[in-house]
Structure formats: C-alpha cells, structure tokens
Design a protein that fits this description.
single chain; 629 residues; mainly alpha; Amino acid/polyamine transporter I; two-stranded antiparallel sheet; 69% helix; 1% strand
Length: 629
C-alpha cells in the first residue's frame, strides 16, 4: 500500500484536559472512591455470598479485598505519575498502542456505562419490599419500577451536569452517611443478635454441596462467589479517584491516598458486614432449615437482606425498638447508598467516553468541554446508554456479574502498565512508587486474571462476545482515521467480524443452553465449542494479519503489541470451558486455578515484553518537561 502519514497512538485529549476544573481535594477523591465502593453492594452482596459459600463467605471478602489492593497499588503509581481524567482506559493506549488500548477501552466502557443502571435498579429493588408493585416475584423490576429507575438516572445526570465542584462536595457529605449506616448496622447486629453457631451449619465452615452452589462445594464456592455475588463488584469503586484524577488539586499525592485508603476501609467494612449477616440469620423466623444456605436467596423476608435480618432478629424489649427504629434508616439508605454510587459512576461513564475519544477511538465531539467544565456530550451519551441498560437486565444480580468480568478484564493492564512504564519511561516523575514493584506488578495481573477465570464460562461467553462486537467500531473509525487503512477494506472486515461474532455466539448458545428450564445442558457439547473456538480464533488472527498488511511500517509495532491479548482471551476461554467452573469440568479445582495462574503469568511476561514507548507516552513526557519549573 502507499505509505501515508498516520497519527497512530497519540493522546488527543491533551488540550481538553487543560479545560477541566481542578477542584477535587484529598478527601473528596477518597470519598469518590469510597462512595463507589459502598453502594448497592452492601445492601445485596452479603446475602448472595452467604447463599454461595455459607459461613466461609467471609473469606470471599478477605481474598477479594487483598486481590483488589494488589491491583490498586499498581494503578496508584501509574495514576500519580500520569493523572488523567478517564485514566484507566488511557494508560493501555500509552503502553501498547491503539489495538490493545481499544480492546481494553471497549471492555471497560461496557462496564462503566452500565453501573448507574445497576445502582438505580438496586435502590428500587430494595424498597420494593414495601411497595411490591415495583418488583416481580423473580426480583426484577416491573414497568413502574423501571420508570422510577429512569427518574433516578435523570437525577444522577443533572448532579453531574452542574460541575465537578458541586459533585465533589455532595459526594463528600453523603459519604459520611454511606460509611456510618453500614457501620452502625454491624455494631447493632454483633452486639445484640449474633449467633456464632451459624458459621458451621450446613456441613461445617465450608458447607456441603447440597447446601451451596450445586457441584461447587467447599473452598471453590468461596472463589466462585468473588465475581458472581457482588463481592468484587463492591470493591471496583476504588477506580473513581483514578478516573477523576485529572480534576484533582494535587492528584500526584492524593490519588494513592484515596485508592489505597478506600480499599482498606472497604475490606474492613464488608468483612464485618458479612460476619454480622451470617451471625444474624434467624433460621426459625425465616422458616428455613438451619444451614440450608441456598434457600436464603429465595426467602421473601430477605428481599432487602439487612432489613430482613433486623426485622426477623431474635431480640426483645428496648433492643427490639432500637432495631425497629434503625430499620427506617436502612430504608432511607436503600436509596441514598446506591444513588451516591450511581451519580459517581454517571460521571465515570462520561469520563470513559471522554477517554475513548482522547485515544482516537471516537469522534472528537466527545472531548468537548461544556460551560460547567465537564465533558458534556459524553455525559449526555452516558445517560442514554444507561437508559438502555435498564431494559434487558432489570435485576441487580443479573447485571453485576457481567460488569465485574468486563471491568476486571481491563484491570489486567494495571500490573502490566506499571512494569512497561518503568521500563520504557523511567524519566517520568513518580511521586508514589509501589513497593516491591517486581512482585506487586505480576501479583496485580494475577489477581485480575484469576477473577476473570473464576467468573464461570457462561459469563465469559457473554462478555467476550460483547468485547468482539467492538471490533467493527475499531475498523470503521480508528483503523481508517488513525492507522491510515483504506475505509472500504476496513468496513468490509468489520462487517465480517460482527457477522461471525453474532452468528457463532448464537450457535454456541443454542447448542449448550436449554431456554425452557434456563439451565446449561448436563452433557457438554464439545463439538460445538470446538467449532466456535476455531472460527473465533481464525477471525481474530485474520483481523490481526489484515491490519499488519495494511498499515505503514511505523505502526506495525502497535498491531504486534496486541498478539498477547488475543492469545490471553483464547487461552482463558478454553481453560474456562474445561476447568472447574466450566461446562465440561475436566480439570477440577484446585488444579484448574493453578493452571489459570500459570497461564496468566505467561501472558503477563509476554505483555510486558510487547510494551513499547508509544507516541502517546512521548507526548506525555514532553508535556511534563514543558510544565516543569
């Protein structure tokens, strides 16, 4: 092809970044992250986790919290070094160029824009215990419930629209409420209604299979609960200080404080909440056989879990009046906590679209800063998309598992980015340096990779199918505009990719799923999966080869930097199908998790080797040198 000048992996948001208002202080960033962590997760996740892992569910919170801290430490260094609004999806673009950056950005986009809808659903679903016209018996929203969720999303939008200064102050104030209400709930339950014997009911601390997830007993249920019941979903909010980092007063020092501080507080609070929930279950009042953990999920008294625990508590006299009075605070908090997280994530969604455009993946319209000094067009688009997410998944539990996987898939870049930037941009000023980075970086990647693996094959199927749907947008816009590929050829490849993805996805779904009873077939269809994975691999490799043959020599490095990510997706997909959480569990736990850990580490080292000093990072270095005194 004729060689032409292309932009490649530039950062198009440098000028618009300067227009953002820098008004967030240390504690406002902390409460943005803490507000993202303490949302609907504290209202629902303790119930789901107990139903999956019984008394051992407290381990799910501890393990997930430690894993999240590894990831947080990696991002704390990167974000303090390069504080950027929408940073999490901009950093892969800096270390590996446009292809890896796009895939990671698209996956993150799928999760970020759906969280406001999840929080609105969580609020309506919780108060639905008092207003049954809002929820169905399957714990999904009725049309009236969806309408009220729409109104909440509108409120989230306008609070963001009036600017980051107001949002930061409101979030800081509401943050105290969000922290105090679950904390006081823990104190009341531990002090007045705690039954230690509950922790060993159902076959011991690790309940037997008949009382937890069918076919996933013991410690494997603890791990399975991490991505599946809202545990990891709850911790994901730490990213807010990073996403709003470009609007901080002193982000180089404040972001690490906010990220690590929020995770430590969240780990302590959620572990204590799970202890209080397990110890507070009154089996007799719930009319459930003691130790039958899975039955908790279907209990009508626990539609609003902590409210139900307090209303069925075995207390009397003055204590019962205290519990009754506190129940009203829980009802109020059922709207306040999810709403606080919802308006934070509405801003995050807008900043994700802003970062999308700064990487060159969307038109520069989404970079425009409005009169309130926020990315206005991105905010409007995020509201519209959140509306859409209310419709097909009107249940909190239905959405959060998919969000967790899509988000954590992007988090594999934290440890990788930390190492690549230290290797290829050592001259950057690092106000915060992650301790023992040679250990922290692979551990952060391993943590994210294992959570992806534990998410179960059906969840991987939905998320990876959605991720592949983003390839046509890459071909239609970025490949032509930024890489210089012929528009007609790129469009044809994009259309072929989307046709294969949708067609194969439908084929595998119908070959493995029985919609009449909403379960996966007991006998796995290995032939269908083999056909699926071979064709998908051919599609991905073919697209990569097409790109390599149609870009200028100076851009080939961007494409070659993406081979490891394609390999990782295919490898984890295959392992998930045959592992202990898959449809054909040939490799049983814990050997499957050991195998997954080895796979993740192999691709970590490959990804580090693939990173390079991109044009975007060159621009960042030049910018920081120009701004230096």
């Amino acid at each position: 092809m004729a060689e032409r000048k292309v932009k490649g992996a530039k950062d198009l948001g440098i000028s618009s970044d300067k227009q953002l208002r820098k008004s967030l202080g240390k504690f406002e960033l902390l409460y943005l992250s803490l507000g993202g962590i303490i949302g609907s997760g504290w209202l629902f996740a303790s119930l789901g986790t107990a139903a999956y892992a019984g008394g051992a569910s407290i381990l799910s919170w501890i393990i997930a919290g430690i894993l999240a801290i590894f990831i947080g430490l990696a991002y704390a260094e990167i974000a303090a070094t390069i504080p950027k609004t929408g940073g999490i999806v901009r950093y892969p673009h800096y270390t590996h160029g446009g292809l890896v950056g796009y895939i990671i950005t698209w996956a993150y986009f799928l999760s970020a824009v759906s969280v406001p809808a999840v929080e609105a659903i969580g609020a309506i679903q919780y108060i639905g215990q008092f207003y049954p016209q809002l929820i169905t018996t399957e714990k999904t929203l009725t049309p009236l419930g969806i309408a009220l969720a729409f109104l909440l999303l509108l409120f989230f939008f306008f609070l963001n629209y009036y600017g980051i200064n107001i949002l930061g102050k409101v979030t800081h104030g509401v943050g105290w409420w969000k922290l105090l209400v679950p904390s006081i709930t823990v104190i009341l339950l531990l002090a007045f209604d705690f039954h230690p014997s509950n922790f060993t009911l159902g076959g011991g601390f690790f309940p037997s299979a008949q009382y937890v997830v069918p076919g996933i007993p013991g410690f494997s249920a603890v791990l399975y609960a991490i991505p599946s019941t809202g545990v990891m979903f709850s911790y994901l909010g730490f990213r807010q200080a990073i996403e709003y980092g470009g609007e901080g007063k002193n982000p180089q020092k404040d972001i690490p404080f906010a990220v690590i501080g929020s995770l430590l507080i969240g780990l302590a609070l959620y572990t204590l909440l799970q202890v209080a929930f397990i110890g507070g279950v009154n089996w007799k009042a719930l009319n459930i056989t003691p130790g039958n953990w899975t039955a908790l999920y279907s209990s009508s008294e626990l539609s609003a879990p902590f409210l139900g625990i307090m209303q069925t508590a075995s207390v009397a006299g003055l204590v019962s009046l205290i519990f009754l009075g506190w129940s009203y605070f829980l009802i109020i908090d059922a709207v306040v906590s999810p709403s606080g997280t919802g308006w934070i994530y509405t801003g995050t969604s807008a900043r994700t679209l802003y970062a999308f455009a700064s990487n060159g993946y969307l038109p520069e319209l989404f970079l425009k800063i409005g009169k309130t000094r926020i990315p206005t067009y991105s905010l409007v688009a995020s509201l519209i998309i959140a509306f859409i997410f209310l419709l097909p998944f009107p249940s909190w539990y239905a959405l959060q598992g998919i969000i967790v996987l899509a988000t954590v898939l992007t988090y594999i870049m934290g440890g990788i980015g930390l190492t690549v930037l230290r290797k290829h941009a050592p001259e950057l000023n690092r106000p915060f340096k992650a301790p023992a980075a040679s250990i922290i970086a692979p551990m952060a990647t391993l943590a994210a990779g294992l959570i992806v693996y534990w998410s179960e094959f059906p969840t991987l199927f939905y998320v990876f199918t959605a991720v592949f749907l983003g390839l046509p947008i890459f071909m239609f816009f970025y490949a032509n505009k930024m890489l210089g590929i012929n528009k007609t050829a790129a469009t044809i490849v994009g259309i072929v990719d989307i046709a294969i993805d949708i067609g194969l996805g439908y084929y595998l779904y119908t070959a493995t799923y029985n919609p009449s009873n909403q379960t996966y077939l007991s006998a796995p269809n290995n032939l269908a999966f083999a056909i699926y994975i071979v064709v998908i691999a051919t599609m991905l490799i073919g697209t990569m080869i097409f790109l390599l043959f149609n870009v200028s020599p100076d851009v080939k490095k961007e494409i070659n930097a993406g081979w490891w990510l394609i390999g990782f997706i295919l490898a984890i997909y295959i392992l998930s199908y045959f592992g202990g959480f898959g449809l054909n569990p040939v490799i049983r736990f814990p050997y499957d998790t050991i195998a997954a850990a080895i796979v993740v580490l192999i691709f970590y080292f490959w990804a580090v080797r693939s990173g390079f000093r991109t044009q975007a990072i060159e621009e960042i270095i030049e910018q920081t040198q120009d701004e230096a005194p």
